[in-house]
Design goal:
Layout lengths: L8 H8 L6 E2 L12 H11 L14 H13 L9 E4 L1 H13 L5 E5 L4 H9 L3 E5 L1 E2 L2 E2 L1 H11 L3 E4 L13 H14 L2 E5 L22 E6 L11 E4 L2 H15 L4 H13 L2 H22 L9 E2 L7 E5 L6 H10 L2 E2 L1 E2 L12 E5 L5 H13 L3
Parallel strand pairs: 1-13, 3-4, 3-7, 7-8, 8-9
Antiparallel strand pairs: 2-10, 5-6, 9-10, 11-12, 12-15, 14-15
Bound molecules: pyridoxal-5'-phosphate (PLP).
Pyridoxal-5'-phosphate binds next to helix 4.
Length: 377
């Protein structure tokens, strides 16, 4: 008997918002107008050699691994290229970790709310997902200590920097406390970090992986390059990396060698950090435009996060409003967002919603927020 699985409400919603007249704040999509199409085309042209068409090692293109490692070192995370596994997006890295570490019935601790597709991966593996209480500064280490004591989780899953869906960032002090706890209890921690480079204000926060050998750090080209490349990477301690490589072999032998070679060629010929700076300048303005429009858009008594980077603002509506009802009215006005309920591992809060500010220009954000304001009438 095949397992019963439910589809992702976010992916279902993306299908509804594909109509060109819809201004969508739903998906965490990078801005299509900011893709470096010419740079990518040139990189694929250079990459398309006979060698790039052949089978290759599961660990990934050595040139690409070395270049990714270099960028991680520049961001303060010491990383030899051998500690990296190239994956088909960071979503695959998550699946590999789940396969390598979780037996059915294993416990995974998560921040609540958290990334929906991670919850799906844990549930598909038959894991029991346990939420850890937190606040605007991320999960609370004292609450995590209680969960560790009571539920004995195998894994803690976090998006510590500019979280999906809330935009929150875990403070350096809490990172240090969580790293110490992981070391003490032999807890594995997944640091899922697709948004960390997209900072619009404030100071860089050190990666959790720089504080403990129990942390598996997941990175991605999706938000800083292009998501259809489907390229990500996983930095893991050597003994676990060996297992993950075998799991990767069983999953797909290796990630597309053509795409990997193109990414390596792109990094050789272009300054990706300069591209990221340009993204940050544009996204910072888009963030400000959405935050500025919120008081005139949502009902009095609403609250929202004020992210320093990333893609998302998380809104909590005043008592009794169900974001799913608002969505129906919003779609009728050709504007979309994601109701927050599906990001909860346990008890959903129907009064929450996630808005993405990166996909649309400042002008489209202003128009979309005007349409959304009408959805409450
Ligand atoms: C927290 C988080 N992890 C992972 C992913 C998946 O990224 P990728 O495109 O690298 O598979 C996303 C995509 O939105 C995300 O928000």
């Amino acid at each position: 008997m095949p397992r019963t699985v439910s589809s992702s409400p976010v992916r279902d919603l993306l299908a509804l918002t594909a109509r060109p007249e819809v201004i969508s704040f739903a998906g965490g999509l990078p801005a299509p107008d900011l893709f470096d199409l010419d740079g990518m085309r040139a990189a694929f042209d250079r990459a398309l050699t006979r060698r790039a068409l052949q089978y290759a090692s599961s660990e990934g293109d050595p040139d690409l691994r070395a270049r990714v490692a270099e960028r991680m070192i520049a961001r303060g995370l010491p990383t030899p290229g051998e500690d990296l596994l190239v994956t088909t997006g960071s979503q695959q890295a998550l699946t590999l970790v789940v396969t390598a570490l979780l037996e059915p019935g294993a416990v995974v601790a998560v921040e609540e709310p958290t990334y929906l597709a991670a919850l799906q991966a844990f549930r598909l593996a038959g894991a029991r997902v346990v939420p850890v209480a937190g606040d605007e500064h991320g999960v609370d280490p004292a609450a995590l200590a209680e969960v560790v004591e009571r539920d004995r989780p195998t894994l803690l899953y976090l998006v510590p920097t500019f979280a999906n869906p809330t935009g929150r960032t875990l403070t350096p002090e809490r990172r240090a406390a969580i790293a110490a706890l992981a070391d003490r209890h032999g807890l594995w921690v997944v640091e899922d970090d697709p948004y960390g480079e997209l900072r619009y204000r404030g100071e860089h926060v050190p990666a959790l992986a720089s504080m403990s050998g129990r942390v598996l750090h997941l990175g991605s080209f999706s938000k800083i390059g292009a998501p259809r490349l489907r390229l990500g990477w996983l930095r893991a301690p050597a003994e676990l990396l060996r297992t993950l490589v075998v799991v990767k072999q069983a999953a797909d032998l290796h990630t597309s060698t053509v795409d990997q070679a193109a990414a390596a060629a792109y990094l050789a010929a272009n300054d990706l950090s300069a591209h990221v700076r340009a993204l940050c300048a544009a996204y910072g303005e888009r963030r400000d435009a959405m935050i500025a429009a919120l008081p005139g858009t949502v009902p009095d008594g609403s609250r929202w996060t004020d992210p320093d980077g990333g893609t998302f603002v998380w809104v909590t509506l005043p008592g009794g409003v169900d974001a799913a009802d608002v969505l129906a009215a919003a779609l009728a006005r050709d504007v979309a967002f994601v109701p927050g309920a599906s990001f909860f591992a346990t008890t959903p809060d129907p009064a929450t919603m996630r808005l993405s500010f990166t996909t649309n220009t400042v002008e489209r954000i202003a128009e979309g927020m005007r349409r959304l304001a009408g959805a409450w009438q």
